[in-house]
Structure formats: structure tokens, C-alpha cells
Amino acid sequence: MFDTTMSSTATTDKATHHSRILAILPKLTATALMLVLAAIWLGPVLLIIMTSIKSNAEFLAGPFALPKSPTIQPYIDVWSGLGFGTLLRNSLIYATAGSALAVTLALVPAFALSRMNVPGRKWIFGLLLTGLMLPQQTVLIPLYDTLRTFHLLDTKIGLIIVHGVYGMPLQVLILRGFMTTIPPEIEKAAYVEGASDFQVFWKVILPLSLPGILVGYTLNFIAIWKEFVFGLVFLNSEDNFPVTVGMLKLNSDRYLAVFNLPAAGLVISQLPIVLLFILTYRQISGGNLSGAVKG
Predict the structure, then answer these.
(1) Over the stretch 55-80, which tens digit does the pLDDT of each residue have?
(2) Burial of 111 per CB tally in 10 Å (0-12, 13-18, 19+)
(3) Are 84 and 243 in contact (CB under 8 A)?
């Protein structure tokens, strides 16, 4: 009798243990897969950072080895050699002003398409979204002709306008989705108090849409900071180059056999948007979820 009870208990414990393993197996598999994907993504980033703090001779001796004598000299050389201060300042101007222009242009259409019964608003919204489907290459010639006609080629203001107009469709999409989630009772209460459409937009909808505006502005800022084609085509003067175009100098014969300087340049150029993303991560994730409820 005792042996039978012990055998039954052992069988039950074994089955329970087996079921626990089966329960956690999907989680372990998912965790392992995520670690592999993280290693694949972080591997090149870590390699670039390690290369940027090595001397060129040390890199050639062991490209994948850990730095034996870390140095910041590559950063000093690439900063002075490329005039990185000017490049970063230009990129900051383009990203800041271009994003502000894109958000400003999108506010009124987003309000009208989300809060007002505009005839054919679905068609208008779809037409605006076609701007998201157009590759940059398809608009280069029309934009070039337009900028040349208005004497805006090779000017900062010309490139800012291009970034603002090109970024507007995405801002309309983000802001419309966010404004749609605002309860209509707030808007109706304002109308009952005698507010006009502009007052409802300016004093009610706009303040409540600030998280969505921050999300759109940040995403557009990052997109403009990384943009390359428009700056390459529409600018000729090195004084107007953004950092993405200015780093083309690193492809010259002077740097052909040098690997640490391009790596240092890449690290410097990406630090601002990495810091911006870290500072606004919570707002971006929260704003995206808010705008995804309706719309």
C-alpha cells in the first residue's frame, strides 16, 4: 500500500514537472530568440563604437578585438577635419525648423479631418496620405525646378521648406489619429458656451493634442536628421551641408585606408537623435498608443 502511494506521488510530481517545463518552454524560446535578434542588431553598433576608440593600426591588427589602448583621438581628428560643429548646427536647424513647419502645416487639416464633417474627407485624407507612398526619387525633379524658380536652391530656407512639406502627410496621419480620441463632449461643451470653430481648435483641441504633437515632431526630427538625398541634390555649398552629406568627405582617398575616423564620425552624428529618443521615449510610446485607438 505504501509503495503504491509513493509510486503514485512520484508519477504525479513527474507529470507536474513536465507540465511546468512545457508551460515555460515558449517563454524560453521567445527570450532566446529576442536575445539573438538583440545581438544581431547591437553587434554592428558595438563594433563601430569599438572601432572609433582604436588607432587605425590597432584596428588593422584585430578588427573584432577589444580595444587595448582606447583613445579619443579619432573623435578629435574627425571633428576638426570635417568641421563637425558646422555640420551638426546645420542638421539641428533643418531638423528643428523642418519638423516645426511640418507639424504646423498638418494641424488644421488634421483638425478638420478628425472633428468636422468635411464633404469627401475620406478622399481628402487618402489623397494626403499618397505623400507617404511617394519615394524621394519621384519628387526630386519637380522640387528642384520649383526651388530653382524661386531662387531657393542651395539655401537653408529652401531645404527647410522641402522637409516641412514632405513631412506633412505623416504628421496629418499622426495628429488625426490622436485628435479622434479626444472625447466629443469636450468640444460640444465649448460650442454650447459660444466658442467658434477656431476657438475650439485653439483653446480646446490644440492643448489636448500636445502629446500627439510631441510624438509627430520627434519622429519627423529623427527622419530629417537622417535624411540624405534632399541635402545632396539641393545643396552645393559645404557651409549648408547637413551632417549626413558632410560625412561624404570620409569616402575620399584621404580616408580610404582609415577606418576609425568614419566610425567616430558615425558615432558623433547619431548621438543627438539617440539622446532625443531616450528623453522622449515615454511620450512617443504613450502618444502612439493614444492615437491608435480610433481613426
Answers:
(1) 888 888 888 888 888 999 999 988 98
(2) buried
(3) yes
Q: 87, 92, 248: which is closest to 163 by C-alpha?
A: 92
In sequence order, which residues have a C-beta less than 8 Å from that of residue 264 and are 6 or more positions away?
52, 74, 75, 77, 78
Q: Measured over all CA atoms, what is the biggest interatomic distance in the chain, rounded to whole angstroms?
A: 100
Dihedral sign, CA of 167, 173, 174, 180?
Answer: positive
Q: Tens of pLDDT along 206-234?
A: 988 988 899 899 999 999 999 999 999 99
109 grid coordinates: 487639416
Q: How confident is the model at residue 187 (pLDDT cuts 50, 70, 90)?
A: confident
- Give the residue carrying C-alpha cell 579619432: 74
Residue in the block written with cell 548646427: 89
CA end-to-end distance (rounded Å), the chain: 68
Residue 28 Cα to chain centre, angstroms: 31
Indicate the domain borders of the chain. Answer: 2-52, 76-291
Cβ pair 216, 174 in contact under 8 A? yes
Q: Pick the range with the lowest mean pLDDT from 4-13, 65-74, 170-179, 280-289.
A: 4-13
What percent of the chain is predicted at pLDDT more than 90?
Answer: 38
Mean pLDDT of 262-286: 83
Residue type for position 81: G
Looking at domain 76-291, which of 3.90.550.50, 2.60.120.330, 3.30.70.1150, 1.10.3720.10 is its CATH number? Answer: 1.10.3720.10
Print burial letters for 257-285: b (CB count within 10 Å at least 16), e (below 16): eebbbbbbbbbbbeebbeebeeebeeebe
CA distance 162 to 226: 15
**Block residue for cell numbers 537653408:** 156
Long-range contact list for 64-71, CB < 8 A, 24+ apart? Answer: none
pLDDT at 23 over 80: no
